[in-house]
Predict the 3D structure of the following.
Amino acid sequence: MVDPNYDFLKDRNAKNREIYWDDVYAHELINPAPYDGLLVSMSAVRKKDGINAGRVKYAIKEEQRLLRDGIRKFLRLDTEYLKDRIIMGDCGAFAYVKNKEPLFSPLEVAEFYEDAGFTHGISPDHIIFRMDESNPAKGSLTTDEKYRYEISQNHAEEFLKLVRQKKYPFEPIGAVQGWSPKSISESAKNLESMGYEYLAIGGLVPLNARQIKVVLRSLKDVLKTTTKLHLLGFAKAEEIHEFQDFNIYSFDSSSPLIRAFKDSKSNYYSPKNGKGLIYYSAIRIPQPNENSKLLQGIKKGLYSPEILLEKEKLSLKLLREFDKKLSNKDDVIESVLDYLEYQLDGSSKDDQRKQRELKDTQVHLERTLTDCPWKTCECPICKQVGVEVIIFRGNNRNRRRGFHNLYVYKNYLNSLGIH
Ligand SMILES: [Zn+2]
């Protein structure tokens, strides 16, 4: 979420802003919404014995509101035009990947999906950290790996039984786990035989595009054509055009959003003339009084807060003037590099690394400022906040850039005929 009335010039939230009530989701800023639905992990909502404490994103009060109002109202997907969007639940297996046992039982998970009003619920699974294309036999697995495979299968079976017995209103999705293309397709086939019509394939995150294709091909060989496939955390979402022959029904991906502020250089998506996407680097002008690295450096006496503020202010001023054609590109580049050099001088990086980082940043700045992609973007974010969207600093700019990426990504999917 972002503060819709954030003051970019003063770098301040709106007066009397209340975080949940006043902040808005991407689907409240961009119409049509830049996604067909949202996926929420149970481990991000429900605390359990402190095991997943670091992964819990909601306060108890928020969890209570979510359960009382229902997930649709909580996410504000309850308006007339959004009321049909998918809200998928999963158990968030990464939160307890190091534990021997899964965090939640099938009954707890099913009750959670029902209480919260999800439209789709994925059976609780346990991640197996192995992918071997040579298809080794089950006998070669460690006891722990075998257990993870079996418990995922058993939980899927129990989960489906519960959904049928108690006539839960959400659509059940079976979570597939395996250690090789063959075991994944066997697991999927088992789940299909149990009665699942929709399957979610996990464990794809560390695989490259070629390996994912091997897995998808083996699934295609064994499953009914009517069985729907969901790819969990599909990291190759930007190469989706390469996967169009595999009968993928749905996928989720956080990369358009996350790359806006986690990627070292590809932060801002743009449509490529013709087909595809291109990426630009955002312009890093950190806030000395907010950025944790700079704050620490100030504490240690590595930086003078006055010098940081002065360099920050000059970079912001020149960039904003450049956007209005009142200053030139080279002056912006010079000031941003000067600010960066000062930051690097207070870091522990050696000279060679410093020089490389300065050189790389110069190349990226040159490209971003030559093309000025925010000026031609039609999305409501770029139209409203303009050049602020390309500045890498704080949640209000970084997340907005992520929202813009979602918009560009969704249009890209539609251009491929994917809806
Ligand atoms: Zn935009």
